[in-house]
Amino acid sequence: RRAAHRDGGRAGGDRCGGLAVTLADTFALAWGSLGHQPRRTLLIALAMSIGVGSVVVLTALGEGARRYVLEQFASLGTNLIIVIPGRAETTGAAPGVLSGQTTRDLTLNDAEAVARLRGVTRVAPLNVGVAQVSRGALSREAVLLGSSAAMLEIRHMRIAQGRSLPPGPYDQTTPVCVLGERIRAELFGAENALGEWVRIGDRRFRVVGVLASQGQQMGFNTDETVAVPVAVAQQLFNTESLFRILVEARTREAVAAVKESVLALLKSRHEGEADVTVITQDAVLATFDRILGALTLAVSGIAAISLAVAGVLIMNVMLVSVTQRRSEIGLLKALGASAANVRHLFLAEAALIALLGAAGGLLVGLVASFLLGRLYPTLPIAPPLWALAAAVATALIASLLFAWLPARRAARLDAALALARR
Known about the structure:
By secondary structure, this protein is α+β, with helices and mostly antiparallel strands. Helices cover about 50% and strands about 20% of the residues. The chain has 12 helices and 14 strands. The chain has helices at about 25-35, 40-75, 110-115, 150-155, 180-190, 230-235, 255-270, 280-325, 325-335, 340-375, 385-410, 415-420; strands at about 15, 20, 80-85, 120-135, 140-145, 160, 175-180, 195-200, 205-210, 215, 220, 225-230, 245-250, 275-280. It has a 6-stranded mixed barrel. Strand 1 and strand 2 form a beta hairpin. Helix 10 (about 340-375) packs antiparallel against helix 11 (about 385-410). The longest helix has about 45 residues, at about 280-325.
């Protein structure tokens, strides 16, 4: 116990009854008290570590999911606007179901009209389906993308070999295709695919390009796709309608204006009916960001409950400790320690336990996050800095709050009665 009379006192010390106690004295005495009960200290710190580690791991998972979704949407394109046939209904039913009407189709003429709008850089009509792709005796199913050369640029799909789909009007039916990397490998192996012929459905196509391997993007694997001109895809699928129209605005600031222009244009082309849904990339990203952000906070709050449990444990242990250490408290007061000195001693013990537990929890949380990142490499799992700071701060605040009652009780003890253990 470090306490001494000093002329003029020391900076940062409390003075009462001739006894000066600095902050360093308080924490040194608190550390010594904890050292006398190592098992109890370890168990309380372990409880605190579990809470802090849980917060770190769960926020890392939530942040990883949020960043994964953002990266996936970013890979779809920049300044992207998607036109979908049918008006979105608040009922959750398909457009036109309740009224008995059928959804008006989007056509290639609609895509050409949208491409002429001000502020539009690229437009890609899109049809999607599944088709059988074969070469000789080798055959497999693939996702068939019917579009234009602009689609590969809008979607940031890179060409590894050869060239993209040929430019030109949307209604051209040139029998050419661009293969995904896995399709190329399965059909051609180590052979050169460029200039060779493959069969898609009942028609033959010349391979003009091979996509660079990009893996999963928003639910489908680009390595297992085959791109053909959109008019050819319509013939293969026996349809004149489009699945989507992808629009790229000139700048991010122009996205809102282009969206309104697209809605107005298609309404005028569809006999005054607002029968399409236009969604923007930013709107979808903002929605997912809010959802995943709320989810991260929710799971962090659930994990923080364990910190409250650890705080209750600290309070219970310290209440017992006050009874066990009555003579020690009485001696301190007899030597001139004030009620504030005693109260600060117990709060310092709680703070030290919280910091020990937080340090252990951070270590466990970071190691667990690293291992989860190795186990699930597609998720960018890493706890954000705010979560690390919040976990430590929550542990410290919870410890001090729950330790306040025992500290207050200890500070109120009478020195003579405490020495007499009464």
